[in-house]
Amino acid sequence: MEPERSARAANPDDEDFLWRLYVSTRASEVEAFGWPPEQQEAFLRMQYRASRGSYHAAFPQAEHRILLENGVPAGAMIVARDSQEIRLVDIALLPEHRNRGYGGREISDLIRQAGSLTVPFRLSVRHGNPALRLYIRLGLVSKRADDMYIEMEYAPTGRKNVDPISS
User: Fold this and answer.
1) CA separation, residue 137 to residues 70, 104, 160 (Å)
2) Fold that domain 5-10+60-154 belongs to in CATH
3) pTM for the complete prediction?
4) What residues contact residue 32 under an 8 Å CB cut-off, 6+ apart?
5) pLDDT tens digits for 58-77?
């Protein structure tokens, strides 16, 4: 039986869940540093606060959503919308909810929304992030890259989707 998937606005009561979700995306990377657990947690908390602050500063009007599976928090998504684009600022799912189509469905919905508004859908992804394969499969192309991130876009019909990174 297919799980029931939905989303709701994030609220202050979600802070513990959002922290746990963040840790699930970074723990193995930080464990590789060989630091004691206390130092790992301190570093992760600093990084968590910094990322939350930078998202808020760069996208103050963004929509923060909690992704639910059967009514239980499974992930989170931040989406910024304006007259120029729909931008996926961040999306993350707990490990047990990854690779089951949930993130792809949410991103596909955003691509459809962007298409109906005839604005591009954009996101940035870290080099090496396994989600890059999903983004390519959904039709996003690289627009530019730096040492850390790849800027990707899905242009609506009538706009040219060019991939200058692989050209």
Assistant:
1) 27, 9, 17
2) Aminopeptidase (3.40.630)
3) 0.88
4) none
5) 999 999 999 999 999 999 99
